[in-house]
Design goal:
Layout lengths: L15 E2 L7 E4 L9 H15 L4 H4 L3 H9 L5 E6 L2 H13 L9 H6 L5 E6 L15 E4 L7 H13 L14 E5 L7 H10 L5 E4 L4 H4 L12 H6 L5 E4 L6 H11 L11 H16 L5 H21 L3 E6 L1 H13 L3 E7 L4 H13 L7 E4 L3 H10 L4 E3 L6 H4 L9 E2 L16 H17 L2
Parallel strand pairs: 1-4, 3-4, 6-7, 6-8, 9-10, 9-12, 10-11, 12-13
Antiparallel strand pairs: 2-5
Helix pairs in contact: 1-4, 3-6, 6-10, 11-13, 11-17, 12-17, 13-14
Length: 450
């Protein structure tokens, strides 16, 4: 799990991080986990591997340590490494391969011999005991257990741990308007750039908290600097913090309000027309400036593209699967396209989210028949996909067709490849007007394909 060096640290302080499985502790400490007995580590790794093989693909590929690793990767001088059973490492690599970054499993002997360079983040998926040095004053502990929850919860847990280290008043409040931007667990690196471009024309100083682009896509973002801990300290003095995925960051939202003492404006995920408009309206009010002409032109072109696509899309029925904000944003956008969700499944949603989803469909005037499920496991999902009539499937890239339906998707159901780049040199995205255009084009490619 992740960790990062804090600026106000005692002399000689060299933080470390250890993540265990049942308690799964993220620890930054001077003590090193290399003191663990090799025999005990091998035994626990074997047990962890056996357990991981029993999990469904949806459970095993979306665990909390993966999300915590993702969050830590967005902070400077943090190096992540997976230590655990072979099956655990494979489940991590399965997602990370799609992001162009592959973690290598490390043996205890190799770990003991490895030199310390900066802050190392050790993600140990198998250990089931408390860290021996957890009573020391210089520890930062975040809970992010394997086999429990999902990657969004792990990201939220790690970021909330870092927020706890910063109090309002630690840094002087900067003059002028400023805000923090938190994306949470992000599948598409291009979304970071899109959100910065959406906010930058308003003249507001924007601090992106956790920026892992250089690690996730080094060829495209080799010169992009990750967020420093000094920038995180300064974030407490901002006027507002905007959460791109509010349903997936409840702990971070509450802690920012309590400890930093500034607003966390409730905005929906900026997907599609209406919810991107909501973001621009808020930014315009905050800055006192009109929406830039180039942004208005981008919106106009998206509206034209939607109008041209209506005859092909309006009668399509969709199955939407994924995380709370992704599912809600995609479903809202599909209604704008004149299409309709037939099946909505949020495997890590709760009853409160389901009620909000049903309320959204009602507010939009959607009259179609729709099945809304939360917390369904892989085998239930496969059955629902076969029982619910739908033409197209929309899901995050981390969930492949084999994960969603191991025995195969229904013959009439086709997967929309959101992760596919439209043209060489372009990059897939889902946020803002640019992301909405990419989603629309991906749907059209699938509809037109034989």
């Amino acid at each position: 799990m992740p960790g990062c060096e804090l600026p106000a640290s005692p002399a000689g302080y060299a933080p470390k991080l250890l993540t265990s499985e049942a308690i799964s502790r993220c620890v930054l400490s001077q003590a090193d986990s290399r003191a663990l007995a090799l025999a005990q580590l091998a035994s626990e790794a074997a047990r962890c591997t056996a357990r991981a093989r029993q999990l469904s693909p949806i459970q095993s590929s979306t665990c909390q340590p993966l999300g915590a690793w993702h969050c830590a990767s967005g902070f400077a001088d943090c190096a992540a490494q997976v230590v655990g059973g072979d099956a655990c490492v494979r489940h991590f690599n399965r997602y990370l391969e799609q992001q162009g970054y592959l973690l290598k499993p490390a043996s205890p002997a190799a770990e003991a011999a490895a030199p310390v360079a900066g802050v190392r983040v050790m993600i140990d998926t198998c250990l089931e005991r408390e860290h021996q040095g957890s009573s020391q004053d210089n520890l930062i502990v975040a809970e992010a257990p394997s086999f429990v929850g999902n990657q969004s919860q792990g990201w939220d847990a790690m970021f909330a741990t870092l927020v706890q280290q910063v109090r309002s008043g630690d840094q002087p409040i900067a003059s002028g308007e400023s805000l923090n931007l938190v994306l949470g667990f992000e599948h598409f690196a291009a979304n970071y750039r899109i959100m910065q471009q959406l906010l930058s024309p308003f003249g507001i100083r924007v601090q992106l908290l956790s920026d892992p682009r250089a690690r996730l896509e080094p060829e495209q973002y080799a010169n992009q600097r990750a967020t420093s801990m000094a920038q995180l300290q300064a974030a407490a003095g901002a006027d507002d913090t905007l959460l791109v995925r509010p349903w997936q960051l409840p702990r971070s939202r509450d802690l920012i309000r309590q400890r930093w003492g500034h607003a966390v404006t409730p905005l929906p995920v900026p997907m599609g027309l209406a919810w991107t408009d909501a973001w621009l309206t808020h930014l315009s009010r905050m800055s006192g400036q009109e929406v830039p002409a180039l942004t208005q032109l981008e919106r106009f072109r998206l509206c034209e593209a939607i109008h041209d696509a209506l005859p092909l899309i309006c009668r399509q029925r969709f199955a939407v699967v994924g995380e709370p904000d992704f599912v809600m944003g995609i479903s809202r956008y599909l209604i704008e396209l004149g299409a309709g969700p037939a099946l909505i499944l949020c495997q890590n949603g709760n009853q409160r989210w389901r009620e909000a989803m049903l309320g959204l469909l009602n507010d939009c005037g959607y009259q179609g028949d729709v099945v809304v499920k939360v917390g369904s496991l892989c085998e239930h999902l496969a059955r629902l996909l076969h029982e619910t009539p739908a033409d197209l499937l929309l899901a995050p890239p981390a969930l492949s067709a084999a994960d969603l339906a191991p025995e195969g998707l229904p013959a009439t159901l086709r997967r929309v490849a959101l992760e596919q780049a439209p043209e060489p040199g372009e990059h897939p995205a889902t946020l803002g007007y640019a992301g909405a255009r990419h989603i629309l084009n991906a749907i059209l490619r699938t509809v037109r394909s034989p």
